[in-house]
Amino acid sequence: MTDVVFILLTLAFFAAAAALVAACDRIIGADAVTEEHPQQETPEETKAA
Hints:
2 helices
């Protein structure tokens, strides 16, 4: 029985962490692309160049 409780608590923790990340992303928004941190090219863009 304690194993089931531990698994449920672990799953609840990860669900709460995922919800917190989603909520913070919704509040703050995506990171801006700057000259210091340019957006990385995808492999498809590299082949086309």
